[in-house]
Amino acid sequence: MKRFPIGIMIRLDEGVELEKEIRKAQELGLESCQLCIWNVSKFKSDEFAAHVKDVLKKTGFPVTGVWAGWSGPCEWNFTAGPATIGLVPAAYRYQRLQELKDASDFAEKIGVNQVITHVGFLPESPDDPDFNGTVAALRHLCSYMKTKNQFFLFETGQETPVTMLRTIQAIGTSNLGINFDTANLMLYGKSNSLDALDTFGSYVMDTHIKDGFYPTDGMKLGRQVPAGEGKANIPAIIRRLQELDYNGSLTIEREITGEQQIKDIKQARDLILATYAEIEN
């Protein structure tokens, strides 16, 4: 049985010390991380890249991907979300495309070959101008990243699994993958997470281990909860990933702060370890 490395999302906001966060992760027995950066000016800072590279060399802690944010408005809901999230909104598409290219440059400097982000509420119809415009932008980005031997990973959530698959096929480059968030598809009311793997499982290259429930309000996302307390069925997802010959990490993400976040990270870690033990027995 393959044991996937258990990782953690580290968000590099102002004042966060990367080495301290990595040491905390190591104390929890975690083995890898994604670096989440929303301050897009950091992508163009050689000083920041050199600092991150030095910390990674000092700690020997693997980074599986750079989760790249972008500038401009962003509302995580069903009302303003479609007009503000990712590359789909035409008003922000060009600027955010340039920022993702900067993120690719930054990832290259620190030795990371995967860049991840939310693309946005991808239209269901392939005839929608925003679908074609987003595909064209992503094809340009992927061609740029291919020269660096990098992969672009879609973060799941705002689109149905078949729309995600259609978008990947329409872009048509060989350096596309999926960062499979085990809660987001449910939080956005798009799909059962386990079933989604039947549609796009072969493209999954990294994960966010998260849990939650479907929406009960037409304006707001579903509720996120600690791993094992929602509808994601994380043990079944791990088993399915093994069947799919997945080769990435299980990257824990818990979008709260403080002591409760540490407690919930431990709970997710223990759920994964218990699943491994059950499979091996």
Give your account of this protein's structure.
It is built from 10 helices and 10 strands. The chain is α/β, with parallel strands linked by helices. An 8-stranded parallel β-sheet has the order 7-6-5-4-3-2-1-10. Strands 8-9 form a two-stranded antiparallel ribbon. Strand 1 (6-11), helix 1 (18-27) and strand 2 (32-37) form a beta-alpha-beta unit. The radius of gyration is 18 Å and the shape is globular. The mean pLDDT is 97.
Q: Specify the biggest β-sheet.
A: 8 strands, parallel
**Global structural class:** alpha/beta
Listing every helix as H and every strand as E from the N terminus to the C terminus, the arrangement reads EHEHEHHEHEHEHHEEEHEH
Q: What fraction of the residues are assigned to beta strands by DSSP?
A: 15-25%
Regions with little confidence, pLDDT below 50 for 5+ residues: none
Helix content: 40-55%
Strand order of the largest sheet: 7-6-5-4-3-2-1-10
Average residue pLDDT: 97
Rg, alpha carbons? 18 Å
**What does the overall shape look like?**
globular
Q: Could you tell me how far the N terminus lies from the C terminus, measured between alpha carbons in angstroms?
A: 10 Å
* Total of helices: 10
Q: Using DSSP, what is the number of strands?
A: 10
